[in-house]
Design goal:
The protein is α/β, with parallel strands linked by helices and 907 residues long. The chain has 5 domains: 10-163, no CATH class; 168-283, no CATH class; 290-400, no CATH class; 437-658, 3-Layer(aba) Sandwich (Rossmann fold), CATH 3.40.50.10810; 667-903, P-loop containing nucleotide triphosphate hydrolases (Rossmann fold, 3-Layer(aba) Sandwich). Helices cover 42% and strands 17% of the residues. It has 36 helices and 31 strands. The strands form 7 sheets. Strands 21-22-20-23-24-19-25 form a 7-stranded parallel beta sheet, with helices on both faces. Strands 1, 2, 3, 4, 5 and 6 form a 6-stranded mixed beta sheet that branches. A 6-stranded parallel beta sheet has the order 26-31-30-27-29-28, with helices on both faces. Strand 30 (826-829), helix 34 (836-843) and strand 31 (855-862) form a beta-alpha-beta unit. The longest helix is centred in the C-terminal third of the chain and has 20 residues, at 697-716. It starts with 9 loop residues before the first strand and ends with a helix.
Length: 907
């Protein structure tokens, strides 16, 4: 019996999965999934830390928990009569692990094995097994994040946490111990000391200067003298959290004289650490009020050239500088004197003002560089001054540096922001397609940004041709810069698609694949690039992360991340690793640069133009908090203006693009077989070819048709061929890239507020899709088959047209004719029919009279299988009579050798 089980209790069985966070589903004793709203109150019944579940997060039927939350909630029985058990032995292991980790977190010995490694936490010297080490590191990382601290601050808190834990010091009986910072005296030194006050009082007590060197027992007032040893211990723990305090006598009250620089270090570092553990910090009220005060700089920017048409990004600009400090105007001489004095706090009139001496030095250096180095517009874009992209006279929150551009420079910047009048680049003659006008704009933009040294994010809607725009760019770049290859990193499910699209549109580009267990590693990888000299290397996110050492050693001509939202979580190892790769040009392709949070946008920009959106903490303060918490329109506009030069986003709803787009775009989606599918495929072909040699013509026809059906089901998913029941999405999806890609694509379409149809020939495939989409995305997906009564069929059609559900699965024969489903903007053909007319009839359920939107048709083809070969044959034979492609019967007339070639699996 599990540790959480009690006789006669109500029981929930938990299904637990973990990536960066835990996802937990609950199933009752009848086997039904239960919404978190029902069972969550029992789990949080005793949990004060989350306000009894008020701060919990739910995603569909999943409860999301950080490692720290998971350990806290499951280290003991959450409720006195409700029992939580694992659904499987693996789930029980997670629950028992929570208790083990909790014991380790409370073990003082743990902190002798914990250290920070950059942004990561490492448990060293074989403390526990690898699973415990990983879990402990994640839990400590989340504890730091919840307190607003970073791994870099771990050395300053480890002793404190080792002694008293993450919750901090318990309240004392009748006193409060605090840290006090007092303003400069006549010697210009600040005073920092440890002080006491009564719990109800507000006046701090500390020994007089003449008694500062006396021990606690002598100097403490009578009312606190009995607590001398306790106060001494608490002071030592308090000061252990202050990096600015280097040494002290443990049996004396601490007091020190500090310079401006030491005070600034304390305010930036120590005060944050102390307050995160609930320790009272007293600083002068005026210092609190002015600690964000800065010198303000106004620069009137102008160009010697008057005509906007001849101003370029490399045009030299000139500045007229003006300064002010808290509203007081300063001359250039005053400003230089302020910098030279190197003080953090000064008096202006009757008020104290804090200035950042390091910032003043940076400003003076920036001004000197601007004057001496002949800045250009391009140089300005990467300075820490996003205000240059705002229209003049916009009300600002007193920006640090305010730029006012003259008319010619503003006109140039507007062109860059709007992607208008970019220098045209000839489309490569060896590109095997014609770019549409908006695609040509994207191609010009890619080349322009490369030449100007800027990374970018191409964020066109799905179906607008991001792939072909990048292929045109690669042809142009590698015709001009032969040598080092370009790297494309993509999800595994679209790796084959990239391979085929490059072969189709740019056969002159030499393409290599870095994928699979036999891929070269170490020196072999370098030798492979040197000997084969590919123009483009394709790899996946998982492989690129695991082979990071090899990939980081190459300075790529360009690095492109397809479906760049895969690095959206900045804290994952995969994201941190890939953002460090080095290339002459960094490009992100994604239709969804932001899926849930602004941190995802930061992560993509950290790859394409590192540092442009600041460090993450500054980005959180400047944009994430005001936008996500306060919904600030002003900050939204500032962020739009800041990212606009580096983000090209077009949607199917853009009226300018609708004129240039076809009403229907058909696209092949190539998917590789998994190793399991490939082995089954080859075995089936070999068995069948041997049998064909012994059969008569009529028997052979029957065997061929039977084999066709088996191969097509196997291309969909091995469980259809093996007649296995559905288990879970986590187990089913990795066994078929095609199924995973269809489920993911349908989910993305639904999340964007669009609707799609999925056609399949097989009832089993429809059920797999239904269950996986429901499990992963929470959508109830109807499946229209030939056995469905007419009134139910009509009701579902009407509901879909009314937008009641986003995804509709249909049997190809039952749903391929007679239905009007124009609410759909996407049609997905899960498996190919040998007669294109049948597929087209199904597509025409959405693409028909009454359809006012662009329709995107996705036809899924498994690489190297009969699906790809038949698709190629149909393309070659499309000029022949319709009788040739009316059914699969024509394949039974092929010779044995032709059939063997048709069925053979080719990697």
């Amino acid at each position: 019996m599990n540790q959480f089980q009690t006789e006669g209790s109500k029981t929930y069985y938990l299904k637990i999965s973990r990536a960066e966070e835990f996802r937990i589903q609950a199933i009752n004793e009848a086997g039904n999934r239960i919404p978190p709203e029902i069972w969550k109150p029992y789990l949080y019944f005793l949990d004060k830390a989350s306000f009894y579940g008020l701060a919990s997060r739910i995603d569909g039927l999943d409860l999301l928990l950080t490692p720290a939350d998971f350990v806290r909630l499951f280290q003991q029985k959450p409720h006195h009569y409700v029992t939580f058990l694992g659904q499987s032995p693996a789930d029980d292991t997670w629950l028992s692990l929570a208790s083990r980790v909790s014991d380790s977190l409370n073990d003082p010995e743990l902190w002798n094995h914990v250290e920070a490694d950059g942004d990561d936490i490492v448990i060293r010297d074989s403390y526990g097994d690898a699973e415990i080490q990983s879990f402990l590191a994640d839990t400590i990382r989340h504890q730091l994040r919840q307190k607003g601290l970073s791994p870099a601050q771990l050395p300053f808190i480890s002793h404190f946490v080792q002694q008293v834990g993450w919750d901090g010091l318990p309240a004392a009986d009748d006193y409060v111990l605090a840290a006090q910072l007092s303003e400069p005296d006549e010697d210009a030194f600040w005073s920092f000391k440890v002080v006491l006050r009564t719990k109800r009082g507000s006046v701090y007590w500390s020994p007089s200067k003449r008694r500062m060197n006396e021990p606690f027992e002598k100097v403490l007032p009578e009312k606190w003298r009995a607590h001398a040893s306790e106060i001494q211990e608490r002071q030592s723990l308090l000061l252990s959290l202050c990096p600015a305090v280097e040494s002290f006598e443990s049996d004396r009250f601490y007091q020190a004289d500090w310079t401006d620089a030491q005070v600034l270090d304390f305010l930036r570092n120590d005060a944050e650490i102390l307050q995160s553990f609930g320790i009272e910090v007293s600083i002068p009220s005026w210092l609190k009020a002015v600690q964000e005060s800065k010198v303000r700089v106004k620069a009137n920017v102008h160009s010697p050239i008057k005509k906007a048409s001849v101003v370029g990004l490399d045009q030299i600009i000139r500045f007229d500088w003006q300064f002010s400090l808290n509203g007081h105007e300063l001359s250039m001489q005053d400003f230089n004197q302020l910098v030279s004095e190197n003080k953090e706090f000064i008096r202006i009139g009757n008020e104290w003002v804090r200035v950042d001496s390091a910032l003043l030095m940076q400003l003076r250096k920036m001004i000197e560089e601007a004057e001496d180095a002949d800045w250009t517009i391009k140089d300005m874009l990467f300075q820490n001054v996003p205000e240059i992209m705002l229209e003049e006279n916009i009300e600002e929150d007193d920006p640090l540096v305010e730029y006012h551009l003259n008319k010619s420079l503003r006109t140039l910047l507007d062109k860059l922001l709007d992607k208008r009048d970019l220098p045209p680049t000839p489309v490569p003659a060896n590109l095997h397609t014609t770019l549409r006008p908006y695609q040509k704009t994207g191609f010009d933009y890619l080349v322009f940004m490369r030449e100007e040294g800027f990374g970018l994010c191409l964020a066109d809607d799905m179906g607008l041709g991001k792939t072909v725009q990048l292929i045109a760019y690669l042809l142009h770049v590698h015709s001009k810069n032969p040598g080092q290859p370009s790297l494309i990193i993509c999800p595994t499910s679209v790796l084959g698609n990239w391979q085929k699209e490059l072969e189709r549109f740019a056969p002159d580009l030499k393409v290599g694949m870095h994928y699979g267990s036999s891929r070269p590693k170490g020196d072999q990888f370098t030798n492979y690039l040197a000997s084969e000299r590919p123009d483009v290397l394709l790899s996946t996110y998982g492989i690129a992360s695991s082979d990071a050492e090899e990939i980081q050693a190459i300075n790529w001509t360009s690095i492109t991340l397809d479906e760049a939202q895969n690095i959206k979580n900045m804290y994952t190892k995969q994201s941190r690793t890939i953002r460090k790769f080095k290339g002459g040009h960094h490009i992100a392709l994604t239709g969804t640069p932001i899926e849930n949070r602004l941190s995802e946008l930061w992560s993509i920009f950290d790859f394409i133009n590192k540092g442009y959106l600041y460090r993450i903490k500054q980005f959180q303060e400047n944009f994430m908090i005001p936008i996500e918490r306060d919904d600030s329109e002003e900050h939204k506009e500032k962020l739009r203006q800041r990212i606009q030069p580096f983000l090209l986003r077009r949607t199917k709803k853009d009226p300018d693009l609708q004129l240039n787009l076809p009403e229907k775009l058909e696209q092949l989606e190539y998917c590789p077989l998994t190793p399991e599918q490939a082995a089954l495929y080859e075995g089936l072909v070999q068995d069948t070819v041997q049998k064909m040699e012994t059969l008569t013509g009529f028997e052979k026809k029957g065997l061929v048709l039977k084999m066709l059906s088996k191969l097509k089901q196997l291309c969909n998913h091995p469980s259809l061929y093996l007649k296995e029941p559905y288990t879970t999405a986590d187990e089913i999806l990795p066994r078929s890239q095609k199924l995973e890609r269809i489920v993911t694509l349908a989910g993305e379409i639904a999340e964007r507020g669009e609707q799609c149809l999925i056609f399949t020939q097989y009832i089993g495939m429809g059920h797999l899709l239904q269950q996986a989409i429901n499990e992963l995305y929470g959508h109830e997906v109807p499946f229209l088959t030939g056995s469905m009564p007419k009134n139910q069929r009509d009701s579902l059609v009407a509901a879909f047209q009314a937008g009641k559900f986003p995804i509709f699965i249909l049997s190809l024969k039952a749903g391929g004719t007679g239905l009007n489903l124009t609410a759909a903007t996407h049609v997905l053909h899960a498996d190919r029919w040998w007669n294109p007319a049948v597929e087209n009839q199904a597509t025409d359920r959405a693409y028909r009279i009454g359809q006012t939107q662009f329709v995107h048709v996705h036809k899924f083809v498994t690489i190297g299988t009969i699906e790809e070969k038949i698709d190629s044959l149909l393309t070659q034979k499309q000029s022949m009579s319709e009788q040739f492609i009316q059914s699969s019967q024509w394949m039974t007339e092929l010779s044995d050798n032709e059939l063997k070639e048709l069925f053979t699996y080719n990697l």
